[in-house]
Design a protein that fits this description.
By secondary structure, this protein is an alpha+beta fold. Helices cover 41% and strands 22% of the residues. The protein contains 20 helices and 17 strands. It is elongated, with a radius of gyration of 33 Å.
Amino acid sequence: MQRLEAKRVNGHTYYYLSDWGWREGKCRRLAQLYLGKLEQFSSRLTGAGPAPAYAEVFESGRPLALWGAVQRAELIPLANQLCPKRQQGLSPGTYLALAAVNRAMQPVSKRGFWEWISGTALVRAVAELSAEALSSQRFWDHLVGWETEKIHALWKGLLERAVQREGIDLSRLCYDGTNFYTFIDTFNVQNHLAQRGKNKQGRANLRQVSYALVCAAHGQWPLYYEVYEGNRNDSRQFGEMLGRFATFYAGVAPAGAPRPQTTLVFDKGNNSAANFALIDTLGLDYVGAVKLGEVAEWAAVSNTGDSRWEACAGLEGTKAFRVAAEVYGRPRSLVVSWHEGLFEAQWATVQSELARALRKLGEVQQSLQRRQQGEVKGGRTPTLESVHKQCREILHREHLHQVVAIEIHPHDAGVPVLDYRVQPEALERLRDTVLGKNVLVTSHGSWSNAQVIEAYRSQFLIEEIFQQMKDRDLGCWWPMFHWTDRMIQVHGLYCTIALLLRAMVSRQVREAGVALPLPRLWAELEQVREVVNVYPGRGGRQAPVRQTVGNKLTALQERLVEALGLRGEKRPV
């Protein structure tokens, strides 16, 4: 039987819950549980437990999902095999995996790494983590050994395993390139990758690093990438990368498996006769676009008055026709297409740019008239050449010089006269021929026009990856505080691994029947957290008691937790 017993010690009453029973023919105390003073355990009897001293909150959804992807990808053992060290502290593979998870989730500089990871469930899931182990110096002590050959070997090993394990669809591949501005000093001679060029974020005043990527159109899997000089032309890089990619791609397919029929999709900025000759030599199927200026005959076809246009089944607002023409050194199949949505967007852009240009031309005209009338006398007197230059700058946007006629002639007062007008015929011709039109080139003579157009439109998938990489909330490239070529190459490696981990998590969720774009998926997983209630130890001498619970989730978040195996013992850590 159980009894509640009280003992008086030094004027204080302490209570015990005793268990009594028969032993050797006598009633004896078999066990007892210390309860403490009355005020210490009375709350238990009334149903109100002791309040925790404080609570710790850790983000668990994204970090544990990504860490599970790290383990499935075999990233750590593969990296450790290529870059071994003594069995002491964190391994190079662990440092690389943590950097990739951070880039996939919430990029921070190496100095802010410990503060970031301390707020995630990884701080308890990965052994031997500490502020000292995750300092910026420790990171680069372990990552500086990654030379170009090792980087290529690691990425190839990861992709070989991913293609076999994930069943990546390689039937359609997209290629494109972009660049990222840096804050590397102009006079830093240790760096050759960061160069000045045409920056896609409008930061031409800064040195930039370029990045090219081939990805699978289905699932946005990164397949092959290169980090290269910021001043290298797109078409030149495409040609140089194409041969290396073909070799890499041939080695990635599972051993003994037939090579899949692959179509490479690329944008018109990569076009050149040499590149198409290389594509022909490699025997690659392709879908690309041709600049309208290079196929003037087909660009001039009326969008409304030509009988060859046919509606494309399954593609609303799209029509097309096919022709054969010699392009880049040999006859090729061209699909001339027109899309209503593209037309409306381009027409609205032309109208907006035209209004802005007319306003600025009016300002220049007024300024010249004021000088002619003597209202303005100071400053340098405009010349015919300087006014021509101003007008060229105002009309530099695409198509404006075709629709606005400019006349500049001398005046008796020595100040040029500017006359300008919109040419309605040219504007209508632009509207009826160029706007809304694309000319696609393909090796697939048996594909329908709709299939070719749909394949080319998948190019937006790789552009979406670049947008995500540059996004300040969802991105993985910035911040980049590196100044040597090797550091930048390693940075490119773990940023690309981050893309792979994201693709793995997205696929896991899709297979569970939940279709979410990455921004929404990340937003939902960010709300999945662990709360650790910390209770003070008894008597002030024992260690605090920690109790881990999850936060309340929505129905969608519950489905994601279940799909990713993040519940209880199923967690991949």
